[in-house]
Amino acid sequence: MQTHLLFLYCYIGLSLVSAEGAQTIANDELSTLLAIKASLIDPLNKLMDWTLPSNVVENKFLHCNWTGVSCNSRGFVDKIDLSNMNLNGSVSESIQGLRRLSSLNICCNEFTSSLPKSLSNLTALKSFDVSQNNFFGSFPTGLGKASGLTSVNASSNNFSGFLPEDLGNATSLESLDLRGGFFEGPIPTSFKNLHKLKFLGLSGRIPPELGNSTSLVFLDLSANQISGKIPVELAELKNLQLLNLMCNKLTGFIPDKLGELTKLEVLELWKNSLTGSLPMKLGQNSPLQWLDVSSNSLTGEIPPSLCSSGNLTKLILFNNSFSGIFPISLSICKSLVRVRMQNNLISGTIPVGLGNLPLLQRLELAKNNLTGQIPEDFSQSTSLSFIDVSWNHLESSVPSSILSIPNLQTFMASHNNLQGKIPNQFQDCPSLSVLDLSSNSLSGEISESIASCEKLVTLNLRNNQLTGEIAKSIARMPTLSILDLSNNTLVGRIPENFGTSPALEMLNLSYNQLEGPVPSNGILTTINPNDLIGNAGLCGGVLPPCSQRQSARTGQSRNKHINHIIIGFVIGALVIITLATAFFTGKWLYKRWYLYNSFFDDLFKKSCREWPWRLIAFQRLNFTSSDILSCIKESNIIGMGGTGIVYKAEVHRPHMIVAVKKLWRSDNDIENGDDLFGENETVSTVAGSYGYIAPEYGYTLKIDEKSDIYSFGVVLLELLTGKMPLDPAFGESIDIVEWVLRKLKSNRTLVEALDPSIAGQCKHVQEEMLLVLRIALLCTAKLPKDRPSMRDIITMLGEAKPRRKSMCHNGSHNSNKEKQIFSNSPVVGLL
Predict the structure, then answer these.
(1) DSSP string, 49-117
(2) pLDDT of residue 493 exceeding 80
(3) Distance between CA 63 and CA 35 in Å, rounded?
(4) In this predicted structure, what is the pLDDT of residue 563?
(5) What is the pLDDT of residue 247?
(6) Is the dihedral of CA 606, 611, 612, 613 positive or negative?
(7) Which among 1, 52, 89, 594 could disulfide-bond with 40, CB atoms 3.0 to 4.6 Å apart, if both were Cys?
């Protein structure tokens, strides 16, 4: 009995001591968390609930419910997730007080400090993520003490110095990502102990001992300053699916044994200084999907086994010295999507069969030594969108129906020996935007049907043997921007309407046999004379004025057609007279009807007299002149210029806002008798939607390309911010342009203006959106002369890319579901 009582007393005593100890630890951890918060800058007040409770004893585990904090079953802090909270400042050394912390995630914030050395005391860590910040200095040592550590992600920071040797002691590591920093020196040899490692992203030299990490599935050492050779020991990584060594300074040969890896799906070695040939067994026994070895100094033949598994989608070999023939096996590889082999020494013919590949979109074979003809089966393709076979030795003619490929956007076959006529099936090219057949031996005339290619942007037919006159229909092509017809045998005159082509920016007609005066309109008024040189019969415009002799010669040419012109003139005159009679009769009847109805207008007969309206609409309108008239009052004035007053008109059904300009009549209008109601009446114009209209429209009526650029910029801002041009949140009389500019002027981060539903806290997407936002601000410049041209905008949008690769999470606080992002890499699909 005494024994049982003694046991009971001991149990109660130990329980009291344990409870007291747990309470003490809980209080210590609460204090540690408050110390961590004190070193942080929290502009969005995400940690507002991290406050000291009024009664610590009664609320000893209250901190377990704080934002981003999780505790285990015993009440100890187990996980901290402060990712995507826009935090900055520094991480406190006090974090070492969380001795049972197993997961720390502070990724995707704005930290610009070094990491505390006390992290080495967190020996219970299993997951450590500080990626996508701006941490600098050396990476903390000591994490290798955490024997259960399985994941370390410190990518996309500014760490420098040597890689920590002690990480090799964390033998449970499965994922180690230190990419995107500025580490130097070799990769530690201790990493050979990481036998469970499945993903490795590092900087530095590649140690041969890395071949001991046989569990590796993804090895990414891309975009660093790695030098030396590719160790043959990497062929021991039997589970390797992805090997990415692109954008380094590697030299030497590609080990032949890499071709024996049976699980290899992706091999990226581009932009190095590798020599020798590709492993001849590459793809023979592996499910190879993506091969990119471009921009090296590789030689030899292309292995015929690359598509043996039937999985190859991307084959990118450009900028090397590969020789031999185009492998026949690739012409039956139905999985191919892209083939890029330009700038090599490949010879022989283009094999038949490529046009029958169901997924092939891009075929680039330029700058090789290919001979023979362009295969006829190209015309049968339903997927090809880009074909470039220029700078070869191809002969024969262009396949007659090649322009009929339904998705074809670019066809380039310049600098070959092609003969015959240009295919005239232009009516079947719905998507064609670039056609380059320059520097061949093509003959015949340019078909008028070329105008059917309504999306054509670039047409280059220079340096051929084309004859006949310039097709007049070219001037009507709505998107044609670049036209080069130089160095041919074209005759006749430059079409009168040629310079007024709506999108034409570059025109070269030099070295033909054109004659007559150069039309004085559009691009022809500012064209470089060198683009017209070599045409002895041309004169006027930017060229020397036409002499009497030239005028006489031109007159004689005109006399040849005088009879036809007279007949056409008589017929045309009769038609015009008939139409004019009908027009003026209708106008007279309309005025009578209009005057009659104006006297019976119940709504405005007392308050004002009706005036004629002219609506210039940039979109479908859902209002009438009566809706607008009710808004023409002094309280709605938003601007005034030399020609009238601008009003803000709000229409309620449906609700919308438009700008109205009320113009004063000029003296000329009054003298011509157009004033139907008296000297003080006005004519008003409604143009576009309020918020999209360029500011200069408030004081002029001129609408030009720069006005369209402004409206385009507003649309870009809509897409980027997720807000309407006149969002109520902006305040009275503030549009989206002014709203963004005010954020800029107040030194607030422009990230606040971005639509969070698009990028969230993903930095590389935010960076790309900010680049586009700056383009939008250029488009919406107040002065028209400060706005870029649409061609410049397209170029800038094409170059709006983030500076470096990064990693994004699918959710704001879910560190377990992560998605690796590699620039120009297929690893996204694999992961």
Answers:
(1) T----S-TTTTTTGGGGSTTEEE-TTS-EEEEE-TTS--EE---GGGGG-TT--EEE--SS---SPPPG
(2) yes
(3) 13
(4) 65
(5) 86
(6) negative
(7) 89
